[in-house]
Structure to design on (383 residues):
């Protein structure tokens, strides 16, 4: 048996294997207990539940409504309790620690500074509080044997008008932990081309950016993000499958846009559970990631909002391993894809691939082989 293809991979092995995360929202990943603590400190009275478990359930249920607009509503609470520097630092610290303990070795976490100004912080204070939290979290994680690097992406809201100002902050802080820029929020009626000024500025400054596109909206949104705005990566991009025709014999015909995305190796930041929650994909088993992986698109696996989806990188990969029969070879492929697509200097990406990712998966394969030779077969057979 080829051990790299054995599936499903046990969840604890995936947890120990190195993972790379490019699409994770800071305000979508709070610990439920922390939301409660921060609400108490801030005298925030709008929370719909008052113990960590029922709060976690409330977030997941609200997020499972099937609409992107309602999904975004859950952020009113996480954003509502993170309006001070100490709250932001705590949330960022816990984010780095949680990701590190989940086996993530490199993460790009994003948030929108403009949503955290209601108690008088400036955008710079907000950014510095979050960067301090990442640094502290990474240090604490390293002390417990879980090395992680965390880069920050500054998000501008597509419904607002200060994207240029946020883009300038991303450039100002690029040597202090900010690695790129993003546009997020409801797609309907707010095309990324409203923010051309920001994208032109970033290109002029040789800076990196990704755009949420092709999640709720289809091909025009993906086309605009790439060809008009010049995005380096696509947040989600699941609707690119609308430009792919699968023929009865299983072969596929790519339209011009899909072919361009594949030829240019444009990374797709796919978030399986989140896409099912917002209705961008019908189920994990029917998620376009299966087709796109088969066709060799630069696919990456991500969490999007760990709190709202009740998920982690380990869980997302485990769900895919079960649904598509992905073995450790596939999981390594996703991980290397993500590392190659990171907004980090080339030499540092290479170092993480060679020093952490490849040895980590070699170790996981050896451990899986050892278990299988002892008769602990995968629970649902091979792929
Ligand atoms: Zn997102």
């Amino acid at each position: 048996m080829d051990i790299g293809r054995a599936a499903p991979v046990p969840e604890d092995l995936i947890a120990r294997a190195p993972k790379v995360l490019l699409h994770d929202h800071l305000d979508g990943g709070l610990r439920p207990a922390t939301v409660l603590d921060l609400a108490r400190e801030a005298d925030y009275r709008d929370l719909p539940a008052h113990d960590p478990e029922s709060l976690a359930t409330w977030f997941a249920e609200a997020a499972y409504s099937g609409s992107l607009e309602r999904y975004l509503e859950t952020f009113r609470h996480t954003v509502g309790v993170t309006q001070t520097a100490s709250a932001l630092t705590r949330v960022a610290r816990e984010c780095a620690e949680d990701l590190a303990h989940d086996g993530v070795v490199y993460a790009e976490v994003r948030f929108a500074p403009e949503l955290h100004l209601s108690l008088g912080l400036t955008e710079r204070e907000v950014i510095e509080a979050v960067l301090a939290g990442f640094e502290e979290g990474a240090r604490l994680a390293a002390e417990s044997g879980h090395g992680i690097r965390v880069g920050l992406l500054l998000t501008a809201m597509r419904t607002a008008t200060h994207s240029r100002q946020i883009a300038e902050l991303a450039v100002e802080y690029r040597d202090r932990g900010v690695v790129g820029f993003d546009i997020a929020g409801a797609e309907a009626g707010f095309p990324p081309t409203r923010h051309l000024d920001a994208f032109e500025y970033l290109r002029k400054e040789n800076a990196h950016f990704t755009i949420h596109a092709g999640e709720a909206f289809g091909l025009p949104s993906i086309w605009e993000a790439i060809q008009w705005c010049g995005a380096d990566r696509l947040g989600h991009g699941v609707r690119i499958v609308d430009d792919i025709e699968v023929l009865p014999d299983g072969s596929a015909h790519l339209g011009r846009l899909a072919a361009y995305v594949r030829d240019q190796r444009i990374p797709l930041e796919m978030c399986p559970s989140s896409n099912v929650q917002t209705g961008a994909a019908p189920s994990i088993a029917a998620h376009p990631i299966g087709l796109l992986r088969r066709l060799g698109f630069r696919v990456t696996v991500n969490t999007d909002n760990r709190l709202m989806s009740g998920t982690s990188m380990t869980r997302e990969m485990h769900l895919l391993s079960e649904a598509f029969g992905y073995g450790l070879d596939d999981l390594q492929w996703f991980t290397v894809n993500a590392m190659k697509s990171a907004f980090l200097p080339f030499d540092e990406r290479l170092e993480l691939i060679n020093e952490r990712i490849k040895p980590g998966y070699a170790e996981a394969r050896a451990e899986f082989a050892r278990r299988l030779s002892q008769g602990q077969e995968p629970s649902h057979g091979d792929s």
Remarks:
- The longest strand covers residues 149-157.
- The pocket of zinc ion is lined by residues 23, 25, 184, 212, 235, 304 (CB under 6 Å).
